[in-house]
Specification:
With 129 residues, the protein is an alpha+beta fold. It is built from 4 helices and 8 strands; from the N terminus they run βαββαββαββαβ. The chain folds into 2 domains: 61 residues, Alpha-Beta Plaits (2-Layer Sandwich), CATH 3.30.70.100; 61 residues, 2-Layer Sandwich (Alpha-Beta Plaits). The mean pLDDT is 89.
Length: 129
């Protein structure tokens, strides 16, 4: 049995959660994403200092070969976003579905989501030992 975490674009219907009692739902808050291609460590340090001066701690930081992305809970104000000197985009609230299931049951859940047109952002699978 595996534990799956599915990030959805909207909440699934109650019929799905009642059909599969192992499903747990919770919502993520809206986030602001700051990103920059070709950033160096000095750019990153300046952004971190700027965020700290505003009392902001990023939820996540992703880095790969000079591409950086900072995910911040909530929405920054318009003037703050303009002053960041990084590309800014807003990410809406998402629904996270967590379910412990065998692969066959998980496939049924995915089919149900597709049938009702719920978009999936990503899936994380953790196998229990």
């Amino acid at each position: 049995m595996a534990v799956y975490q599915i990030m959805l674009h909207s909440a699934p219907p109650a019929t799905l959660t009642s059909k599969f009692p192992a499903i747990t739902l919770y919502a993520t808050p809206p986030t602001t994403i700051l990103s920059r291609r070709g950033a160096d460590l000095a750019d990153v340090d300046r952004l971190v200092e700027r965020l700290r001066s505003l009392g902001i701690t990023p939820l996540e930081v992703h880095a790969s070969s000079c591409n950086y992305e900072f995910r911040i809970e909530g929405r920054l104000g318009e003037s703050t976003m303009r002053s960041m000197e990084w590309a800014v985009r807003l990410d809406q609230e998402r629904t996270i579905m967590r379910v412990a299931a065998a692969p066959a049951e998980f496939k049924m859940i995915l089919k149900e989501l597709a049938k009702v047109g719920i978009g999936i952002d990503h899936i994380i699978c953790r196998h229990r030992t």
